[in-house]
Each structure stands twice: as structure tokens, then as C-alpha cells.
Automatic annotation (TrEMBL):
It catalyses: prostaglandin J2 + glutathione = prostaglandin J2-S-(S)-glutathione; RX + glutathione = an S-substituted glutathione + a halide anion + H(+); prostaglandin J2 + glutathione = prostaglandin J2-S-(R)-glutathione; prostaglandin A2 + glutathione = prostaglandin A2-S-(S)-glutathione. It comes from the Eukaryota. Pfam families: GST_C_3 (PF14497), GST_N (PF02798). Conjugation of reduced glutathione to a wide number of exogenous and endogenous hydrophobic electrophiles. Involved in the formation of glutathione conjugates of both prostaglandin A2 (PGA2) and prostaglandin J2 (PGJ2). Participates in the formation of novel hepoxilin regioisomers. Negatively regulates CDK5 activity via p25/p35 translocation to prevent neurodegeneration. One of its GO terms (cellular component) is nucleus. This is Glutathione S-transferase.
Amino acid sequence: MARFTLTYFPVQGRAEVIRLMLKDQGADFDEKVVTMEMWKEGTLKASCLFGQLPMFQDGDLTLYQTNAIRRHLARKLGVYGKDQREAALIDMMDEALQDILNKFIKLMFEKDDTGKEGYLKGLPKDFMPFEKTLSSNEGGFLVGNKISLADYALVLLLIHHEVLSPTFLDAFPSLQDYLKRMCARPNLQAYHQSDEFKSRPIVPEKKA
């Protein structure tokens, strides 16, 4: 039996950073995919504490709420900093990245591209703090000298934004180098190039 079980929809959504951590760290886990038909039927939704997914099971511990799951898993996998100081800095970076993710997901749910131009204009301001952090941190990561929860969140956003705007990283040499290094990690590289990753949409497909 797998050590962990992730239950979520067949999209990247708010569970993809969880998947990245599990994949990169070589963790043994199962994933239960919930279709919209299954969710609308209501039985599973009614059984979830807050009526939401993802759901994450670690032995006899069942967790809901994405941030609680991410931080619990980061602690279990040893990617939450070497001490409380680093953990606090990881939280700071992760929350700033979630601000960008929220705007990005909102854009993905739009039925047309009317908001794309304005969104792209805001990217330099959004990503410059991470460019500055990486250029000044000799450890090569957002915090300290080891990959952390915040790095997985940043890597995923950079991958998505390269697709959205292939030239956007040209203005961020440190982020550009960082993404190449992170995507060269064997487990991340294998997952990023897999059909599993490529076939899973970021959000549910837009309906006309």
C-alpha cells in the first residue's frame, strides 16, 4: 500500500505543487482521480470536511485545504527548511507565489484573452522579487541551499508562464538559469516530459 494518497480532479489546479514534491522526492503515493460527474453526484463532496478537494491521506491522517497539505508534506519530505527561520522564509515566498497563482488561475478561467495583455504587463513586478532573491542567494534556491516547498511552487509557475509568454524569462537571467537547473533534476525532468504531466490541463477546459 502506498504511503500517501492524493484525491483530486484530473487537472493540475491547486494540487500540482503537491504532485511535484511527491514526484521529485520519489515518494510512494497513489492518486484517486475524481471526475466532475463523480463530484456532482454528491456523495464524495458530502464526505469531505469542507466540501472541497484536494484530499490527502497520510496513513490514518486525512487532510483537506491545499496549504495545510503542502506544508505537512513538505515537513514529512524534509523540504521545509533546516530550522524555523528558513521555514518562515519559505512560507513568505510561498504565499507571495500563491498570490501570482491566484491571478494566473483567474486568467485561465476567462473565456477569452481580453485580460491577457494586462496580466503580462504585470509580470515584471510580480517576478522581480524572486529574480533578486535568486541572484543574491549563493545556495541556488529561494531559501538556503536545499530545494523547498517554495521552489516547487516557483518552478511550476515559471513553466506555466513560459507557455503563456515564451519570451517572458528573457528579462530574468537568474530565473531563466534557475528553471533550467530545476527542470534538469532527474525526477522533475522525467515528470515534466511525461504524458501524465502534458495531458493534464491546468484548469477544467473552458466551455463556450
